[in-house]
Amino acid sequence: MTIEKDKPVVAEVSLPNIDSTISPPPEVQFMWAEIPEIVKLGDPVLRKVAPPVRHCNKETQATVKRMIEIMRKANGLGLAAPQIGISTRIFVYDAGEGDGVQVMINPVIQSRKGLQTDPPEGCLSIPGLQGVVPRAETLRVTAFDERGRSQTKRVSGLEARIIQHELDHLDGILFIDHADPDSLTWLVDDDDEGAPHAPRE
Ligand SMILES: [Zn+2]
Predict the structure, then answer these.
(1) Which of 20, 78, 103, 160 would give a disulfide with 93, using CB separation of 3.0 to 4.6 Å?
(2) What is the CA radius of gyration of the chain?
């Protein structure tokens, strides 16, 4: 490594090249204007590594409450704090398996096993795009809840996929970074009903 003294100071976050290659076709542009509370691809906050939550306090609980409301409004499976413009290590999700909304603060994946490639993933910050993303099939993950209680979970399948997607958001990583490039597809409905949609997180 060399140090170049005359090098200009680089901006805090530089957007990866892939971000500029993603351009929504006219048919899905209305989706990018929906739910303005959710920041969309191109916003530098999505590419930051979020700092950990230091204290679970009323502010944390208010952020969690707001995230759950916005996730429900967007009909999403999960939502990470950077997606509402807050760079902090919190995400919420509901895998629809009857456990209700789960909150993970300062989550850490302790172990990963296996491989899953279905279903294709989408993201509320990149509306209308889906792609095939290889993910671990099972995880052991530790995190705090909104009251600061430590929890350890073993999860698999869709729940494990959502957690990996959301945890990536906390590290400035998006599903397009991991997706098979040939699998990236815009969901352009021929009619408004019955078209398949990837889970959106
Ligand atoms: Zn996402």
Answers:
(1) 78
(2) 17
How far apart (Å, rounded) are the C-alpha atoms in residues 87 and 89?
7
**CATH domain 23-186 topology:** Peptide Deformylase (3.90.45)
For residue 81, what pLDDT is reported? Answer: 98
- What's the gap between Cα 108 and its chain centre? 15
Classify residue 14 as exposed, middle or buried by CB count within 10 Å of its CB (0-12, 13-18, 19+).
exposed
What is the band of 17 on the pLDDT scale with cuts at 50, 70, 90? confident
- Is 59 a catalytic site residue? no
60 C-alpha to ligand 1 centroid (Å): 20
Q: Which of 34, 166, 193, 201 is catalytic?
A: 166
Domains of the chain, by residue range, sit at 23-186
Using CA atoms, how far apart are residues 173 and 80, in angstroms rounded to an integer?
A: 12
